Amino acid sequence: MSSLLFESSRDDLEMLVGEVWSSHVDDRDGLEPAAPHPWSAEAGAATTPCWSGAVSVTGLWQALIAVDLAEPSAHALARGMLGLDEGEEPNRTDLGDAVGELANIVGGNVKSLMPGHHDLSLPVVANTLLEGATELLPQIVLDLAWRGEPVRVRVLALPPSSSHHDQFPEVSE
Amino acid sequence: MKIVLADDSRVMRQIVIRTLRQAGYTGHEILEAENGREAVDLVHREGPDLVLSDWNMPEMSGIDALSSLRGSGCNVPFGFVTSEGSDGMRERAALAGAAFLIAKPFTPEAFQEALAGFLGG
Predict the structure, then answer these.
(1) What per-residue confidence (pLDDT) applies to A9?
(2) Separation of alpha carbons B120 and A125, rounded Å
(3) CA torsion, points A154, B35, B121, B98, in degrees to nearest 10?
(4) Is the dihedral of CA B100, B104, B105, B111 positive or negative?
C-alpha cells in the first residue's frame, strides 16, 4: 500500500523551485505565478512546443515529479545553466541535459521532504509533454511564468489507498 | 590540486566548475567523469586530492564508487554534490566514508564551507 501523503504546501514547493532558479538558472529574472497554460491538445488548444523532464520516486510514497517548459524557456534554461550568452544556442543534447537536471534537482528535493527511505530514478526527458501513468493523481501543480513563457512543475502521486507498485511509475509521451 | 568531478550531467559539471571558481577555488585541475565507474578509474589512474561526486548516476552510483574506493584501500577525500540532501542520505554518506554532502541547489558559500579543509581558503 502507498501509505504516505505529500503534506508539503504549494508555498514550500514554490520556494524550492525559486531557489533552484536563482541559484542555477537566472539570478535576475525570477519565476512568477501564472494562470494555468493549455499545454496539451486535449485542453482544447494547439499543443505547445515544449520540453518535459521527470523523475520517479519509489518507496512508501510513489510519485512522479515533472517540469514542463515551453520551447523558448528550455533554450533559455540551458543557456542559463551553462552560462552561455544570449546569442548562443545550446545543442539538443545540452537542452535535454539541462531539463533533466532541473527535474533531478527539484525531484531530489521533493523526495527529501518525505519521511523514510525512497529511491529516485534517473531523469526522463522528452521534447514533448510527458504524462504520468493514469493512476498518478496531481498533488501539487505549480503554474509559473519565466520571461513571459510558461513553466510548470507537477507532483503526481498514487493516492494512499492505491496498490503498491514495485516498479517506477510509468512515464509516457 | 587535482579534483575528480563525477556527474552524468555535463550541464551540472559546468555549474560545479563555475561555482568552484566563484567560491575562489581557481587554478585546480578538474578531471571530469560521467559516472561512478569512470570516477573510480580516474582516481586510481590520476591520484587526485579530492573527489566531488553526484549520487545518482548510471553505470555506477556515487555511493557505490565511494564503497569501491574505500574497499580498495583508497582514502581520497570524497564529497557528494547531490539533489538528495535529507538527513538519511547524509547519514548514509557519512557511514560510507564521505567527508561532506553539498545539496543542490547550492551556493558558492556552501562550497567554501565544505571545501575549506581540503582545498584551503
Answers:
(1) 79
(2) 39
(3) 90
(4) positive
Tallying the residues shown for chain B, one arrives at 121
Q: pLDDT tens digit string along B55-85?
A: 999 999 999 999 999 999 999 999 999 999 9
3-state secondary structure of A24: helix
Preceding peptide of B105 cis, ω within 30°: yes
Question: What is the average pLDDT score of chain A?
Answer: 87
Nearest to A51 by CA among A34, A31, A73, A36: A73
Say if the Cβ atoms of A24 and B15 lie within 8 Å. Answer: yes
Angle at A39 between CA A82 and CA A95, to 5 degrees: 20
Q: Could you tell me the CA-to-CA distances from B31 to A2, A80, B14 in Å, in that order?
A: 42, 23, 12
**Cβ–Cβ gap B11/A78 under 8 Å:** yes
Q: Tell me B105's DSSP state.
A: S
Euclidean distance between CA atoms A16 and A84, whole angstroms = 24
Q: Is B7 in a helix, a strand, or coil?
A: coil
Which amino acid type is present at position A34?
Answer: A
- In the 3-class helix/strand/coil scheme, how is A28-93 assigned residue by residue? CCCCEECCCCCCCHHHCCCCCCEEEEEEEEEECCCEEEEEEEEHHHHHHHHHHHHCCCCCCCCCHH
From the list A29, A125, A129, the residue with the least C-alpha distance to A79 is: A29
Q: Look up the pTM and report it.
A: 0.91
Radius of gyration of chain B (CA): 13
Quote the cell numbers at residue A50.
515544449
pLDDT digit string, tens, across residues A105-114: 999 999 998 8
Verify whether the Cβ–Cβ distance B106 to A105 is below 8 Å.
no
Question: What are the residues of chain B with a beta carbon less than 8 Å away from any beta carbon of chain A?
Answer: 8-12, 14-15, 18, 56-58, 82-86, 88-89, 103-107
The reply to whether residue A108 touches residue B56, judged by beta carbons under 8 angstroms, is yes
